[in-house]
Amino acid sequence: MWTLVFAEGGSFLPSLYAELGHRIESQSPWSHRADDATDVRELVFDQVVKTPMGVKEAHLVEEQVAVVRSVDGGAGPVRFVVATETASTGVPYADYFLVLNRYCCWADPAAPDSACFLFISSEFKWIKSTMLKRVIAKASLARTAEYYGAWLAHLQKMVATAAQPRQSMATSATPVAVAVAAASVAVSVSVSVAIAIAAASGLAPSPASGCS
Fold first, then answer.
1. Coiled-coil annotation: which residues (predicted)?
2. Structural domain boundaries, residue 67
3. Would you say the pTM of this structure is higher than 0.85?
4. At what angle do helices 12-20 and 133-169 cross, to 10 degrees?
5. Where are the alpha helices (DSSP H) in the chain?
6. Does residue 126 form part of some domain?
C-alpha cells in the first residue's frame, strides 16, 4: 500500500490527478532530514475549483513529510505516516487557511498477510480571521469529501489491478475488500475518514495508535 501510493516515481497521484483534471507542475524527490529522521518532498499542482463566483483555477503547494513510527515499544505494527500541509492561491480566501492531511498505513500481524490498513484525517488550520469562516469551511469540506471519494475509488481500482496477477497464479483467492470503517464531521470543522483495506471484510482498524 505504501509503495503504491507514496513511492518515488509512482503512478497513483499522476493518474488520479489526470482523472480529476488537476495538473501537476512539479514533484520533488523525497529527501531525508537527519535532524528529525523524516523524509520530505514538495508537490506543486493546479486544480479547477467551483466557487460562488464561478470556476477558478487554484494553484497549490503541498509539503509532504514522511516518518516511520513504532507502536508499543516496537512490539506493535510499524506505522508509515505522511503528514501534508497544503497552501493555495488563485481562489477567494485561499490564503486564509491551510489544509492539513495525514495518511497512516500499517499491516496487522494478527490479520492475513495480505491485509493492511489506511487511516486518513483532514483538517483546516486558519491563519487569518474572517466572518465567512463557516461558508468557506462548508465549501472546502464538500470539496474534501468529493476528493477522497475519488481518491478511494482510484485506490480500489489500482489495488484490484495489482492483485490480479497474484490471483491468477493462485488456486483460490480472496477478493480484496474495501470497507469504510468510520467517517465523521466534527464540530471543529474537521473531517476524519478511516479506511480499512484488507483481504477479508470485518477487520477493524485502530487508527489512533501511532498515527499522530
1. none
2. 2-198
3. no
4. 130
5. 2-6, 12-20, 133-169
6. yes
